[in-house]
Amino acid sequence: MNKTKLQQLEQLLNAPVVPKVMSNSEWEREGGKKHPEAGDAIQSKNAYLIVTRANGAELQCWEIAATLTPLEKQLIGWAIQQGGVRSSSGASDLERQTRRLGEWIQQSVTNGEWRAEVPDRMELRNRLFDGMVPFLLLCEQLEDKEPSYSELEKTIRTFISDETLLIPLREHEWLILSSDRLLTEADTDGDEVLGHEETKEILSTLAEGLHQLVTGEWGGECHIAVGEPIVPAESVIRIVGTLRETIFLGRKFHVGMQIHLPWLVHLERLLSGIPEQVRSRFVEEMMGRPDLFTDSETVSTLDAFFSMDCNVSETAKKLFIHRNTLLYRLDKIKNEAGLDVRSFNDAVLVRILLLLYKVTKRK
How do residues 169-183 score in pLDDT, each as one tens digit? Predict the structure, then answer.
């Protein structure tokens, strides 16, 4: 609410109305309930506190220095619930409901409540079907102005499905939940039952298509993580945490990539937990040639080799080079680093060294 409207409210109540920011823990210490929402209020000795917006661990409130009548409290709470979810009065009922759900998700993630189930009070709970595909969309540095909720929702629905839910989380971040029917619709082989690996391939393709759609429409830097189908009413908090971590690890270890898949960052997740000092010392001790990974050709060759499961022929095709040229490059790495990536043990070690080098020497 802007300053003019606050002044109008002060005149109506004949009492000061002061905007205030509180943490969830402060709210609970004042006697408020856990997981407050817009419109929730508490009466202290000297003031009436009411939440105007819940954004993760932060609450935006009004502190009204007066003792209000039950009718005044009811009217103020009603006004906030009608327009407090978003300042825009033009927001649709669906947008208000998704923003309310998004605020609850963000709050639960912040509090580490990974097993929390979507409460019955959320209007959208009956639209969370078993087997929904989760996408996490993070858009930064948009070339044009950020799209409105309705613009982004309309664009995404043209690509995925009319059953898709767009749920705003943090600034520039949205959770997208769509029916798992889109997997069979995207299956070019027409299989009735998709295998595990086929499902992953289709999810990767869908994420790439969504990325092209969003960046083609609004430009800027955009990252997308996608997970396998979930039961959102039970596991939406866990999947949001997983997909956020997946984007974080992808941006940290694989600079330049915009599509991030949870099943491809298991090793990165493990290495990320190692203290930086230990990572740096390990790289320095194990590297035969400290400048080996500064050569872009070497790095691109190794990245392709590992992405092709160490298959020489497939790697050569991916790099558009002759098989003998690839063998020459691998022999060069063996001679300079003392590690043969065609050997399983050495391949594992080089893979770890390459990942660690990217985050310890890129600064």
Answer: 988 899 999 998 888
